[in-house]
Amino acid sequence: RRIMRPDDANVAGNVHGGTILKMIEEAGAIISTRHCNSQAGEPCVAALARVERTDFLSPVCIGEVANVSAEITYTSRHSVEVQVNVMSENILTGAKKVTNKATLWYVPLSLKNVNKVLEVPPIQYARQEQEDEGKKRYEEQKLDRLETKQRNGDVIFPVINPEPHTVGYSQSSLIHLVGPSDCTLLGFVHGGVTMKLMDEVAGIVAARHCKTNIVTASVDAINFHEKIKKGSVITISGRMTFTSNKSMEIEVFVDADPFVDDSRERYRAVSAFFTYVSLSKDGKPLPVPQLLTETEDEKRRFEEGKGRYLQTKAKRQAQMQQAAQQ
Amino acid sequence: RRIMRPDDANVAGNVHGGTILKMIEEAGAIISTRHCNSQAGEPCVAALARVERTDFLSPVCIGEVANVSAEITYTSRHSVEVQVNVMSENILTGAKKVTNKATLWYVPLSLKNVNKVLEVPPIQYARQEQEDEGKKRYEEQKLDRLETKQRNGDVIFPVINPEPHTVGYSQSSLIHLVGPSDCTLLGFVHGGVTMKLMDEVAGIVAARHCKTNIVTASVDAINFHEKIKKGSVITISGRMTFTSNKSMEIEVFVDADPFVDDSRERYRAVSAFFTYVSLSKDGKPLPVPQLLTETEDEKRRFEEGKGRYLQTKAKRQAQMQQAAQQ
Amino acid sequence: RRIMRPDDANVAGNVHGGTILKMIEEAGAIISTRHCNSQAGEPCVAALARVERTDFLSPVCIGEVANVSAEITYTSRHSVEVQVNVMSENILTGAKKVTNKATLWYVPLSLKNVNKVLEVPPIQYARQEQEDEGKKRYEEQKLDRLETKQRNGDVIFPVINPEPHTVGYSQSSLIHLVGPSDCTLLGFVHGGVTMKLMDEVAGIVAARHCKTNIVTASVDAINFHEKIKKGSVITISGRMTFTSNKSMEIEVFVDADPFVDDSRERYRAVSAFFTYVSLSKDGKPLPVPQLLTETEDEKRRFEEGKGRYLQTKAKRQAQMQQAAQQ
């Protein structure tokens, strides 16, 4: 449990999605590290491998208390699935509401040899179905991780004098030198720190495009293929890929440059899609100016984004119908 | 000297008591580490062993400057007593007022071997009485530390659907992964970091109970029996033990789980009582809803809290009478 | 690129000059460390040796995005000159303005042996003039660094019951324990961290003197002669040296006490002059109360400050005339 403090908030008073993502990951890292060390054997630290798609159901405001709870829901031989729930509580009224539900996958790395993945102590399931469903989720995410690993990395180039509402107009990037307070005991960046920076860049892109107050609506699945070492410089870049009437999709890349280490080149560490919405001063969704696509690549990415948007929309409607029928 | 910044403040603009406690401890750690290294010999770091009861005489507001001064007032063979004073200064009016007076005890630990307590260079006293009074304080705190070491640790369990104003309704806990920036050169958590987190939890408990703006009024003596190592997870839990007409007493526990270290179980590292008051928007004390006790344990703790409350009240009245007679 | 957050701002909403200085230094450290590691050889970290005089052309406000860009403009055998530009962008209006232009000098230190200065890979110049001008700047700063190294260190003593507007009335100091998050990979304090603390002290001195909202107007050249090691205690002290009608000059000293290291005494690590202006609520410059000098030393320092003030003023007028003629 944590009090949301003023420095975690954007100008209009909501808590940045990135702060919530960081809290979620901290909770996941703690519960899975604790579990993986629960049996005698080599000490280890759980490293984030993947976060499933996350929806931000309602914004958390300053002065509210965020309740984070976490549960281990599945274990494979080498990985742990954690379910994290975030509830926000208005202390003055006592009102609570669900803010986020997130699913994270962790892998235990040996404290003595960071390249060694240890075995995970198995959990007990109340019913056989739980294990079967967990196994299905495990196989699905494994497949998706393999696929995205091969996706080729794109680079964002600066544009001179871009027109408003084009991709070049709102694209943004920031650099960050990885310090000790960003890192785990193994000397690698916490997944939550990376996600917070990614949300920061995505937020700047969204704000530049629509020039209003914006909030994170959802984050697509994020895979952490490559560890980022202390002392690296990371470049986080974002560009808008798609707009619907009331939402913006932003693609974010994280590139790591371990420049004090001779043996490695700059590499793409993480990439993800963030969806943002624009809000009026009283918190109502506003229409979003349409993204102007210019190049063939931009048009292709817009269509791909539209595909993801329609797929998510269809899935949500199916869930609502299912819920209505029950 | 430090400027109090917006992120150190609660919603109504006062500076959190926990931030003041952290500043006090930083000052104490610096002056005692400097003193213990003032003679040739093994280099060492002073570790916090105990903080005496501290009253928050007046709240510090944002934009005010806090002046922290520290003085070594007694040395035993293996420990240092430091007196820290905090004054707040309104830069615009120049008005100053005493905010806190705190007494802390430190023990020098060798930088080469953390389990080795070194000898403290003796200080010179202006008068023999000063040494005698210091020795009396030293014996008293030693006795109290021994006593509280044996006090058995309690655990706070969650309550399903608690009624307002019961103990279960406001009890709270947070977890924190101990990172490098929380630690001293020896890799153990700064006492001030622990106290800041304790105050944060106590503040949430108090706010949940009375649903108003609240501030720290005092902290009872805190003993630091056990060091907490980098990489541990600490759980800070708080529950209300007693309410008077205008104050709330909250008991806070700190449990450490050094889960990457095979050789140790989860242990109780620190516990303490915080007293909070409820304030109206113009800073006047408000009546506090009475705590509803349900179990025998809760009723017993309420009576014990009442005992501490009456004892403190009597002590304060005796001091005021003494002051009036002088 | 970074969003300025509420905790980086002073009460009236502008971003502290110190935060800008820290961002500038981070950008400089990243680009020069990357450059010095661009050829096979010993890995190294670029350490800040000097910052040239910097003017704060316009304040950055909360909610604005600061764009920091950096370029290597000259390399000598053992040092790198970096030009950093800061632009602030109002996301809602899209308006951009130049906030700072800074020139920094870095020296590559070996990661394996911190006392070994490595060679810098040479850069290519578009025109011979660029190299010649760079060489001239290199020689000038080298001379200035040599000169200031010999300048004898002054100490600031507390004054009992000082009168308003005297030097003793506003002088201030703060202490800071150097933690891991303040340090580079080599375990020495980032130059940007030191500059941020220096600006904090200078701001307190300025606010105490004129009791209004104040902002950093410029910082004179700062030379970093001595590294400051993790675990040291640093004392940052500031005193006013000169006032013009609308500006205040504050001298700031940084003294390091490596007290867990037997072999070293407390030493003067850095010193610099900061210029502040006083602003009304709508951001207009206010007249500043004249500094009352009492001792011979204070009068001498006032005259020296006046010399620096007049020199800067003459230089700026010459530049404006030159610009008008072009």
UniProtKB/TrEMBL annotation, chains A, B, C:
Per the record, where are the segments of Low complexity compositional bias? 317-326
Positions annotated as active site in the UniProt record: 10, 199
Q: Name one cellular component (GO) term.
A: cytosol
Q: Which residues form the HotDog ACOT-type domain?
A: 1-112, 168-282
Which residue spans traverse the membrane?
Answer: none
Biased composition range(s): Basic and acidic residues: 297-307
What enzyme class is recorded for this protein?
hydrolase
Return the Gene3D superfamilies for the record. Answer: Hotdog Thioesterase
Tell me yes or no: is Repeat among this UniProt entry's keywords: yes
> Where is it located?
Cytoplasm
Top-level division of the source organism's lineage:
Eukaryota
The alphabetical list of record keywords is:
Cytoplasm, Hydrolase, Lipid metabolism, Repeat, Serine esterase
State whether keyword Repeat applies: yes
UniProt-annotated stretches for the region Disordered: 294-326
GO-annotated molecular function: carboxylic ester hydrolase activity; long-chain fatty acyl-CoA hydrolase activity
Q: Which InterPro entries match?
A: Cytosol_ACT, HOTDOG_ACOT, HotDog_dom_sf, Thioestr_dom
What EC number is given for this enzyme?
A: 3.1.2.2
Q: What is this protein called in UniProt?
A: palmitoyl-CoA hydrolase
